[in-house]
Write a structure and sequence with these properties.
Order of helices and strands of chain A: EEHHHHH
Strand content of chain B: 5-15%
Oligomer: heterodimer
Distance between the termini of chain A: 46 Å
Shape of chain A: elongated
Strand order of the largest sheet of chain B: 1-4-5-15-10-11-14
Helix content of chain B: 25-40%
Largest sheet of chain B: 7 strands, mixed
Structural class of chain B: alpha/beta
Radius of gyration of chain A: 15 Å
């Protein structure tokens, strides 16, 4: 299947709180899919096949992770921002 | 027949309640990547020190400044309702009460901490607050709060939401907030993403990075960042809900509460109602305190208490919390506010102690409950709030079966008028219940098996 095959199908994004096209879900993480792509689409699309067809195991490991807890990201982002400042 | 129980402004609580002071077992500190506890100084670039002091405070009661009370008076004290029509529909001997937080200008409990955080920032000399938002609930609450204090508010709103939720943007702008689609050209984080992906629709991760960077890189040091959930000071500010509720119950002669219920994502609306009742439980009262979560995302009901990293690179701090491990990918559900992988450490510790007993409920039962609630009490509750309604109905039916009068209190944390999609799907019969299989859970937890284990500090009293 082509990577753009399902791009116009809309689904509800529980992170953002509104509908989004599938193209968002497959590209929102700097070109890679959202970590929740399997959960949100498994009832609607052959999503596991889609992921297997279009992403390497390394890429899958990179994006198939839950969102970080906000509190746990703060220190990391502060340090990153400080580096950016300097 | 008294349906709505109100308080006068002069009857509003003058102090917030800090559960950390009364937890029988001390809180475990968040750890940095080096294994050492995170220090206040590490958080200083994004939070004013007066809020960091609250974050680490062990004082039981913390005065609510008059300035904050003046802000809260705009919608507080919030009403408590006796859900007589729901009781009648259920034929239960239970007396059901709910604290109606949907009456705030932004439609949820979020402004309780937004106005407090804005006030403390202003006191600290801060001129501008940054934050991130998806659909715009927290961004709206903070914009509202900043408008009351003459602070600048910069909200990085995920671009796709910015384009698709024009009314939330209008809400923020009406309150004077600056709503910027993220990624933007205002930050290095945003520019880096745009350079590689000029047409990117953005993400919450990018928006948070931009908000933090905007605060940290302000040369004048006049900008800080605000967070709407998880942290201790956020829980603290929300306790005004439970403190008011206790006064309101007293007004109608309720001397004993049997069950306290709130939905729990990051934990702030549950904590807000429940923590003031938890102190009674610590001092001997028999109260069942229930945080409710989606059965498909069992952060509290099935996972062990463990240290867990926030990322696969294992560079973020180790935090003691209920966790399903990195590899856990929650299945679909339509309660946007209940999506946190981790739970507030204070809520986690209260569960470990046995002071709170979590419950998980499937989304179809939640929407069925929300529909009954709308058709009896009239309020269309937010999807996440429907979990608390469903748990309340369960307990009311139990009371009926046992023929016992019980007093049940729950937190109506917000209305659902801007999030009706789940209702639509429920009415069309398109919602599917999905429980995480034990084997998936075991596989996920295997990922964190070898991490340092949090000491399960508990007294064993509950």
């Amino acid at each position: 299947m082509k990577i753009t095959e399902f791009d116009t199908i809309a689904g509800y994004c529980r992170m953002l709180g509104h509908k989004v096209p599938f193209t968002y879900c497959r590209s929102m993480k700097e070109g890679l899919p959202c970590s929740k792509i399997l959960d949100c689409w498994f009832e609607i699309l052959p999503i596991e096949q889609f992921v297997t067809d279009h992403y390497t195991p390394e890429e899958q490991e990179k994006f198939l992770l839950p969102s970080k807890p906000k509190v746990a990201t703060l220190i990391e982002l502060i340090e990153k921002a400080k580096r950016s400042k300097s | 027949m008294k349906t709505k129980i109100t308080l006068l402004e002069k009857e509003m609580p003058r102090q917030w309640y800090n559960l950390a002071a009364d937890l029988p077992s001390p809180m475990l500190p968040p750890l940095g990547p080096d294994g050492n506890p995170v220090t206040p100084d590490q958080l200083a670039p994004v939070f004013p020190m007066n809020l960091i002091e609250q974050e680490v405070s062990q004082e039981r009661w913390i005065d609510i400044p008059e300035g904050v009370l003046d802000l809260l008076y705009r919608w507080r004290p919030s009403p408590m309702h006796r859900a007589r029509y729901l009781e009648e529909a259920l034929g239960t001997p239970a007396r059901i009460y709910y604290k109606n937080e949907s009456v705030s200008p932004a439609g949820s409990h979020k402004p309780n901490t937004a106005v407090a955080q804005a006030w403390y920032n202003k006191e600290f000399g801060i001129k501008k607050i940054t934050t991130e938002t998806g659909a715009g609930q927290w961004g709206s609450a903070l914009s509202f709060a900043c408008s009351l204090l003459g602070l600048e508010c910069k909200v990085f709103m995920v671009r796709i939401s910015f384009d698709q939720k024009p009314f939330r943007k209008v809400m923020m702008e009406t309150w004077g907030g600056q709503c910027i689609p993220s990624p933007s050209n205002l930050t290095n984080a945003g520019r880096e993403v745009l350079a590689k992906h000029p047409d990117t629709p953005g993400s919450l991760g990018i928006a948070i990075s931009e908000a933090i960077e905007a605060a940290v890189t302000d040369e004048r040091g006049e900008t800080r960042y605000a967070l709407g959930s998880v942290l201790n000071h956020v829980m603290l500010h929300q306790t005004i809900i439970g403190l008011e509720a206790k006064k309101q119950l007293e007004k109608v002669g309720e001397k004993k509460v049997d069950v306290v219920i709130g939905c729990a994502g990051g934990g702030s609306n549950f904590a807000g109602l429940a923590f003031p009742f938890m102190t009674d439980k610590i001092n001997g009262a028999q109260i069942e305190i229930i945080p409710v979560e989606p059965a498909s995302c069992p952060t509290m009901t099935r996972a062990p208490f463990a240290y867990d990293h926030g990322d696969i690179a294992k560079m973020t701090p180790l935090l003691p919390m209920h966790s399903l491990g990195h590899a856990f990918v929650p299945p679909p559900i339509h309660a946007g506010g209940l999506r946190y992988h981790g739970m507030s450490p204070l809520v986690s510790q209260s569960i470990v102690e046995g002071l709170a007993t979590p419950m998980a409920i499937h989304q179809n039962e939640c929407y069925e409950a929300a529909m009954l609630f709308a058709r009896t009490e009239g309020i269309i509750v937010a999807p996440e709030t429907s979990h608390a309604v469903a748990a309340t109905i369960r307990k009311a039916k139990e009371a009926k079966e046992e023929g016992k009068e019980r007093v049940i209190v729950f937190n109506l944390s917000g209305h659902g008028l801007m999030d009706l999609y789940g209702y639509d799907k429920y009415m069309r019969g398109e919602l599917t219940d999905f429980a995480l299989p034990q084997e998936d859970m075991d596989e996920s937890l295997a990922e964190i098996r070898d991490y340092p284990k949090a000491e399960a500090r508990k007294t064993g009293k509950w």
